Amino acid sequence: MLELNHIRKSFDGTPVLHDISLRVEDGEIVSILGPSGCGKTTLLNLILGLTDADSGEIRYNGEDLTRTPMEKRGFNIVFQDYALFPNLNVYKNITYGLKNRAHLTSQQEVEELIDLLGLRDHLSKRVDQLSGGQKQRVALARTMVMKPRILLLDEPLSALDGVIKESIKDRIKTIAREYHLTTIIVTHDPEEALTLSDRVLIIDKGTISQYARPEEIVHQPKNDFVRKFILNQLEIKRDNIYALFGRPSVAAAV
Ligand SMILES: Nc1ncnc2c1ncn2[C@@H]1O[C@H](COP(=O)(O)OP(=O)(O)OP(=O)(O)O)[C@@H](O)[C@H]1O
């Protein structure tokens, strides 16, 4: 279990995160959701170890990691821009991290990941020959071969469109389930968060507005911010579709 206790963070004297406490169970998918500038990336970086908290505590399975450097935490992140190596082919990108740490993952496990992420036909391609969705899958595979104890994803779907987005969503869910891997995802899209996660952490100006299962957020929004920012956005999307195509008839909906 990952535990954050009373985390506070300021930049240049301006508080960005105020007293954040939460628990993430092993194998859970948790989305961090909120508007631009609310502190999502800062929170992700704190968990990763890229940024230090001003105060508070981060624990994983009881071990205090608050002052543990990033490389010793065993967490791993897929950045928004994928950060792949343009001069290496797909296979070399995936296995790059194993160069000096081959013991981490067997050849068979690498092959399983390649198949799980549907990359078998692309292994000899250069990164610039790939679509956005393919790049995202390579970035996921490359991170997974390092056997992270927690997988962190920064806006993994924001650069992808419709069908590809759904397929990457499914792959993320499959990976989390198959590997029983705790997965923490930053997003600003309520639909993404509600459909992808076991629990959603809604942040408003550096504080937790609600941390709950998607159904609870939809049926029992805790406050006006959740109602207005999160649920309103979904209603606007739905109403835009209805305005364009009309409401589905009751018969069609059944
Ligand atoms: N290194 C930094 N130095 C100074 N201020 C920072 C730094 N990193 C973030 N901030 C500020 O902290 C606040 C939260 O930033 P953060 O990137 O965590 O927000 P976010 O919710 O991820 O936003 P977005 O969705 O736009 O990426 C912002 O006001 C930002 O300007």
From TrEMBL:
InterPro entries named in the record: AAA+_ATPase, ABC_SmlMolc_Importer, ABC_transporter-like_ATP-bd, ABC_transporter-like_CS, P-loop_NTPase
Record-linked Pfam families: ABC_tran
Coiled coil: none
Entry GO MF terms: ATP binding
UniProt keywords, alphabetically: ATP-binding, Nucleotide-binding, Transport
Domain ABC transporter intervals: 2-230
Protein known as: ABC transporter ATP-binding protein
Organism: Pseudoflavonifractor hominis
